[in-house]
Amino acid sequence: MPELPGTTADSPGRHLADRRAAPRGGRRPEDRDGFFPRVMVVDVDEASRRMQAEYLRLRKFEVLAVADGTDALLSLDSFRPHAVITDLVVGSVDAYAVVASAASRGIPSLIFAGAAPFDARGTETSVPVVQRPAPLADVIERLRDIFRIHPPHIVHAA
């Protein structure tokens, strides 16, 4: 039996519309077409920062890539990200200062680093960590996990 466009045949005799191709619709602003979660990428390594930003843009995220923690702290209020991805080494400002500043604004963070997930005091951090080397798909999956717990919402400028 030929399949209709936009349908799947997961079980014999049943052809269901593929919901992934349907418009998102919904009542929440984040369910409307054209909503892209905003993510800030903080990394001193230009190649890594550029690669992460481009990968996220291809997956329909709005991205601001900054080179160090000082720029990240200054950009938190103007860009208003829904999540922050940071490396442990982010220049003159400690990555945990960026994470703490984001958390004080209700913004969840993710650490993408090659080091162990411990803070300066030697205690384990509660911030999700993806250790390098890891495929960027793992970062996307962690972001989706974060957004399930902290759904992104539209914040209108005051």
Q: What's the quick description here?
A:
The chain is 30% helix and 20% strand. It has 158 residues and is α/β, with parallel strands linked by helices.
Number of helices: 4
Broad structural category: alpha/beta
Terminal CA distance reads: 56 Å
CATH superfamily: Response regulator
What order do the helices and strands follow? EEEHEHEHEEH
What does this structure look like?
The relative contact order is 0.14. Helix content is 30%, strand content 20%. It starts with 6 loop residues before the first strand and ends in a 9-residue tail after the last helix. The protein is of the alpha/beta class and 158 residues long. It has four helices and seven strands, in the order βββαβαβαββα. About 3% of the residues have low confidence. Helix 2 runs parallel beside helix 3. The longest helix is centred in the last third of the chain and has 14 residues. The protein has a single domain, classed as Response regulator (Rossmann fold, 3-Layer(aba) Sandwich). A five-stranded parallel sheet has the order 4-3-5-6-7, with helices on both faces. It has a two-stranded antiparallel ribbon with strand order 1-2.
How are the secondary structure elements laid out?
Elements: E1 7-11, E2 14-17, E3 38-42, H1 46-58, E4 62-66, H2 69-79, E5 83-86, H3 95-104, E6 109-113, E7 129-131, H4 136-149
Parallel strand pairs: 3-4, 3-5, 5-6, 6-7
Antiparallel strand pairs: 1-2
